[in-house]
Write a structure and sequence with these properties.
49% helix, single chain, 13% strand, alpha/beta
Amino acid sequence: MATTTRRRVGIASAVFGAASAGVAAAAFAKRYAVGRIRLRPDLEASEPLGELRGRPVTITTSDGVFLHAEVDGPEDAPLTVVLCHGYTLNLDSWHYQRRDLRDSYRLVLWDQRSHGRSQRTRVDDSTIDRLGEDLYEVVQELAPGPCVLVGHSMGGMTIMALADRHPELFGDRIKGVSLISTSAGKLAEVSLGLPALLSKAVHMITPSTVALLGRRGSLVDKGRQAGSDVAFLVLRHLGFGDSENVSPTVVDFVESMIRSTPFEVIADFYPALMSHDKLSALGVLDGVPTSIVVGDGDWLTPVEHSKAMAAALPRAWYTEVPDSSHLVQLERPGAVNDALRDLLKRVAADAEDAAEQ
């Protein structure tokens, strides 16, 4: 009996030791991989990401939520550019666009409700239609003249919601639109780069998992606040198309924005993103110059979704950026900014033509 017990203890100790050694080896390998990545030359290491600031403004929405916004660039510019950020991000995600456009255009950047410095809201008000109403109030208060709307991911959906609810603005006040890495609907069918059966299984369990974790958001956030090598590696591979060469500084910057978004907020907005369907509202945008931009490796709002929007807007300019993914405005800012400048030049030319008539 004693021999049997000692044998079981010995086997258990060996298994535990092997498992511990495996975990330790995996942890070492992970740290080693991240360390090697961070030792590579980083061209963005000195970039003041998240440090550019404008004139702060607080907008109180019709349902009493305080939205943080910033106005940047020359106040007397003939055109205002309103930048709408994506899910789990904040207005600083437009760093490169702000940096390159602020000398020529009046910019309005704002944090969507429950994101960034804006006030948290109830789960019932965490909808794309409500975001569209928020954008309406931002435009009314901070863009008194002609403007162009630019939206990334959820920000693009916000613009579509505005078009659905206030079509009269497009062509009158709103002179152009840029939709970047976004979708008009059917996100619940996205494969996420997985085989069909696995993708279906993931979509089946994700809503309930997100909702469950959302109810324990404060506990989840405690684990997220310290950051981790795992989060860095996952974001590097999923958020950026050229993961081998993307700047570690940029990856850290994005990870800090995502980490600062409470998990309860992530859970609150998740159903709204999955149920989003505004393909019918795209016709409103056909009356103004529109630019559609997507990374060729976008796994969250795939190329097919941007092509579907382009098919619904045959006069839109379509740009597919190579070697990039969902965070294309941060990964390939030059290509995105070129597309924005082309759109803004077209809007200016249309204004001149209208003035001459």
